[in-house]
Design a protein that fits this description.
single chain, about 150 residues, mainly alpha, 5 helices
Length: about 150
């Protein structure tokens, strides 16, 4: 018995299973035009991985510096923040953390909305609410970091 060409013939001649569920396209079939327009989901996936790694480094560095090297939570107050944000280094550090955390969270929630919101109108309004709130938080957070006045308390 020879098995050289029988596996290809067996696969081609195998009976097709037709069930009540959705059909799965062959991997070699042409892609739908919608899936070939942009690589937005690929870039979103890549952003989540890269921003997650960078956020871990920034947050752990922040915690070590704030809680271990600078004496703990008891020292954190208005004067402490005023002293930190007088340095462009700390302003940049906090700004990068703010923007990365916000965009990382928004991208994750956008994915959840796409996965679980069944109606197009529901998906539209949930995303509109998400993007609006994200813009407000980013704007206000950035505004506070750059316009923080350490003399306001005196």
């Amino acid at each position: 018995m020879s098995f050289s060409n029988t596996s290809a013939a067996t696969i081609e001649n195998a009976p097709k299973i037709h069930g009540g569920g959705p059909s799965i396209e062959s991997p070699r079939s042409k892609r739908s035009p919608r899936s070939t327009k942009t690589n937005f989901e690929l870039y979103g996936w890549l952003f989540m991985r890269l921003s997650g790694v960078l956020l871990v480094v920034l947050v752990i560095g922040h915690l070590i510096i704030q809680l271990v090297l600078d004496g703990g939570v008891s020292k954190i107050g208005f004067a402490f923040v005023a002293g930190r944000w007088s340095s462009p280094f700390w302003q940049s550090w906090d700004l990068i953390m703010l923007w990365l955390a916000e965009l990382h969270g928004v991208n994750g929630l956008r994915t959840i909305i796409n996965d679980y919101a069944e109606r197009d109108q529901t998906r539209f309004w949930l995303k509109a609410l998400l993007y609006t709130s994200a813009l407000i938080v980013l704007f206000l957070g950035t505004l506070v970091i750059f316009t923080f006045d350490p003399n306001i308390g005196s």
